[in-house]
Design brief:
Serine Threonine Protein Phosphatase 5, Tetratricopeptide repeat, mainly alpha
């Protein structure tokens, strides 16, 4: 799947949906660096894409950067609230609370 998506990108197709698919696929493969690259481009193309912000936060956390994860989820909350995406909003609030508990040791 990644190979076919990468071929589309190489042919000049570049949109938020393609970048989201690549970001998710790379994250599922355990490559947080490539996931971050594609998800970051995804939210640049569509800053209101709350699911992409959610995955971008997960990718940053997997890469060992909790501060970047927090920033992505906070931006994602703004996007979700602006879109009325209640499910994404709830999930990112949970992620942020877990991150806060982990960082404070509670």
């Amino acid at each position: 799947m990644i190979e076919s998506l990468e071929k589309m990108l190489a042919k000049g197709v570049d949109n938020s949906l393609l970048r989201f698919g690549l970001g998710k696929a790379w994250l599922d493969e355990g490559d947080s660096v490539k996931a971050i690259e594609h998800l970051q481009r995804c939210v640049e193309l569509d800053p209101k894409y709350s699911a992409a912000w959610k995955l971008l936060g997960k990718a940053h956390l997997a890469h060992g950067d909790p501060d970047a994860a927090r920033q992505a989820w906070e931006r994602g909350l703004e996007a979700a609230r602006g879109h009325g995406d209640k499910q994404a909003e709830k999930e990112m609030l949970v992620f942020l609370k877990k991150l806060e508990r982990h960082q404070t040791g509670n």
